Amino acid sequence: MGLLVDRAFLDAATSVPALREVIRDALIEALFTRDDRVLPPEIVAVLARRPSVTMKPKTDVELQKLVRIANGQESTVSLGLGAEDWHYVRRQLAVSKDQDIGVTVKPSVVTTHPWIVPPQGGIEVDPVDLSAIAVDPKGHQALAGVGARWKALFDEAARVGRLVPFFPLVPLDYAIGDALYGDAVFQSYRGPFRRHLLAVRAIASHGTRARIGFEEVANHGTGYDLLGLLQNSMAEFVVPAAVSVLLAPRPRSLRNLVYHFPDAARLGEAVARLTASGRALLYANVYDGGAWALLHPGAAGGAFILEVGLGGAPTVVPVREKAVDALLAGFTAKGADVPSPYDAEARAYARTAERVGRLLFPGYLTFPAKALGDVVAKLGTVGEVAGAKASLFGAVRATGTVSLAPGFDAPKEPPKVYSVSRQVWELARATPGASYLSRLAELWSEDRMYRGRIVLLERLKEEIDSARVVEPTVPLAGPSGRLF
Amino acid sequence: MVSLDYSFRRLVNILGPERVSRSPVERLMMSHDFSSLPKIANLQWKTLPDFVAVPRTTEEVSRLVQFAYEAGLPLVPRGGGSGVVGGSVPNRGGILLDLRQMDRIVRLDADRRTLTVQAGRTWKEAAAYAASKGLFLPAAPLGAPASTIAGWYSTGGAGIGSAKYGSARDLVLDMEVVLPSGEVIRTADGTADLATSYANLNPAFFGAEGTLGVITEATLQLSPKPEDLRPLAYSFRDLWAAREVVPALEASDLEPYHVAVYDPVHLAFLKAVRAGSPDPQGLVQVVFEGPKDEGIASEKELDGAMAGLGGRKLGEAVAKAMWDGRFDLYPARRLAGGLVLTESVVPAKRFPDALMRAGRLMRRLKMQVAVNSFLVDRSTVAIVPYFLLEEGRMSAPTALGFVKKWGDAAFALGGHPQGLGLLTAFNFPRMHKGAVGMYGTLKGVFDPHQTVNPGRTIEVWTRYPVPLFDHIPPEVMGIGLDLAAAVRRLAPRLAYVSLEGGKR
Lengths: 484, 504
What we know:
- The complex is a heterodimer.
- Chain A has helices at about 5-15, 25-30, 40-50, 60-70, 85-95, 150-160, 180, 225-230, 265-275, 290-295, 315-325, 345-355, 370-385, 415-430, 440-445, 450-465, and strands spanning about 55, 105, 125, 135, 140-145, 160-165, 165-170, 185, 195-205, 210-215, 240-245, 250, 255-260, 285-290, 305-310, 335, 365-370, 390-395, 400-410, 435.
- Chain A has 16 helices and 20 strands.
- Chain A starts with a helix and ends in a 20-residue tail after the last helix.
- In chain A, about 35% of the residues lie in helices and about 20% in strands.
- Chain A has an eight-stranded antiparallel β-sheet with strand order 16-13-15-14-18-19-17-20. In chain A, strands 4-5-11-9-10 form a five-stranded antiparallel β-sheet.
- Chain A is an alpha+beta fold.
- The relative contact order of chain A is 0.14.
- In chain B, the strands form five sheets. In chain B, strands 12, 13, 14, 15, 16, 17, 18, 19 and 20 form a nine-stranded antiparallel β-sheet that branches.
- In chain B, strand 8 (about 170-180) and strand 9 (about 185) form a beta hairpin.
- Chain B is α+β, with helices and mostly antiparallel strands.
- Chains A and B meet through strand 10, helix 8, strand 12, helix 11 and strand 17 of A and helix 8, strand 11, helix 11, strand 17 and helix 17 of B.
């Protein structure tokens, strides 16, 4: 369900007598791959649980009711269901009454893999119908339900002359909320998603409404940046309903330029030059031939492709394009009439996402652009060991880093996911300045400082969710008192 | 609580006699920040710290924090004192931690373009160091010469360059923080990009005014040094005539590095103390930064847009002078001996409404207020009105009514006042509404014993540690300031300069 739930469960599991002697990594592997031979029955039982009911609220009022039902403040009668559905929901929730009735939120698309601990009964919220989008016609801000697709927001914004200035790193058909409780990474060339996130409307565990952040303006100097603090684990603290994001005016001139490179090393050097130039780009995506073929079936492509989005005043963009051409010296071919991948028709975008979504993504690697050649070579080795070809989807940041999501053409079986993820993690650790964002890596990390941060977040969760309603932890043992 | 003499001896044991002070002069200097506070405020708060401690290492800070807890003394971290809301001003005495001697450059990673510095280094010094290595620290506070790395981050501010590069939040990758328990923690993974990472505690300290711990070191993201920096200036008849500039730039596809709108009153203030300053007028400064060819093209685009809005382009010399003086905006305080700044952010599209409300407020309260503004991002403009204040004058406290009323105006426009200080903390519940409990919880989790900069989040402490009088409810504080505003309406007009130039 979430990082804090998983880490607490791992800590608790080590106190089970049968697992006390098991090395942490081996335990994680056994839990992740569901190796029931080495797991005691009480652990297997936890891993086998499922949500009691899945509900699809249409409004935040309905969402609030669900939280209040889980909290014991309202009965299921107030849901206004038909007799048959009501009996089903009531019976299902009653079955799980021996535990807390928690509320969990179901991500629309998971890029990598689910967390280890599944929802322990209770109510699973599928936010697919919380998909209303309201773009401010006078300003540059939009309010979108957490279930609204990023692509729908992009199209709606374009319709009223706005641009969604953040893009999915892997071109999947994400909902906006997936960045809060899934593992979607949105970013722009200039900054991470947080820079474009203004506020989240949520339901707190006691059933009250809470707005974290400010819907029309940035949050500056108003106490803590709670929004940023909770961003990646939002659904472990509150139940998000809608998101307010910052938009940009749609530039009068937009260009999608495609550069083909013969190898990753030359692409890496070109990207390093580009990021050192201070040129303003909307996005700069990196693909290998395999990924490109998935995005543009039948289209010719080089071994490596850099896709650059330019936007701005009509007099500025040609100047910028000329400069970018010069900076990217070493490319073998350039395509200037390739349509932007984000402007594709919604159904075509979804079809592409469906193709890409079949790949096995272990996580996201971020490293200095100069190391691109080295990282790509090492990823090739990982693919050989795994017996699967890697397709590379990446994005460049103005900071001079590249974030790469390698997608392996392999079945998404837990043992395979685990071994590939572990190898990519080793690769990241062997690359200077690299970091690896993956759910498994968060569990593997035993860094003392990281551990301290997690303990603080666990304490915060305990306090904010004192009602134990929002993705409650699985109680096998009590929390420790110290950070380290 | 232990005796102050005993506490002094313990502090001397930790830092040595030369870095702990009980001198009234030093304590007085640390009892206020850049904004003036009328003397009457001392009835409510004990702004004079009991001790001033000057640590140089993280370990010393940790020992000081632990001692503060043991002694039951509040500990207030302070950087350069350039804050404007009293965030680093003690409310119940205690130990004031002057962090300015923690100013070492720890390391520069040119490949990753990161700079790690101790918390007490100023933004201007850090920027100069980066520039000496061919790199660029792209955003800085308006008080950069005095404002320290941790100070600006803790005030949650935006400033020069934020329109393009974001605020301090977007520049800080990782920090070392001494928690109220005395434990030292790194807030994020030092190798991680800002993109996405789990268990990143940086945001907890952004805007926290040092209420969750003491920041001792930070790693900053640098940028490539720009080829060209192009300050431009445009003149408008008055401030009202420049009202459409901010919404127009918000809606344009230009990417300015910095946009500031200066009030004629501000320029009149400047002129009164510096003869060579521009004449009072509505003055808009737009700065482009980056490759030269794009700067030239952007300037042409902007010239057209500004002409369409009725702006007249000023010469390079004026633009450069305004840009060079960007960190020295408030020399006028010497006209009255004091000055009060209050900052709010409002949606950029509501900028004309904000100017209208500010004007109405000035007329009602019979005050001369300079309403400067700058663009924070696409949707947000920070409006920073300031007025001169003679601290000793009987009517001085009534002028603080403006701070409250201006905050009210920001709320009404969909924005919010900034700052978690003595005079603004009472806004906290109103700002965060349903989520306010979560903010209080955060403070409780990090600082359960209320050791570090206490009493300025969900509750406003007074100087009296006795039940019933130990805190002032936010509503009462609001009513008090409303009352001050009402009295201000009856008081004579406060004006220090005429818009034709010169002192009154």
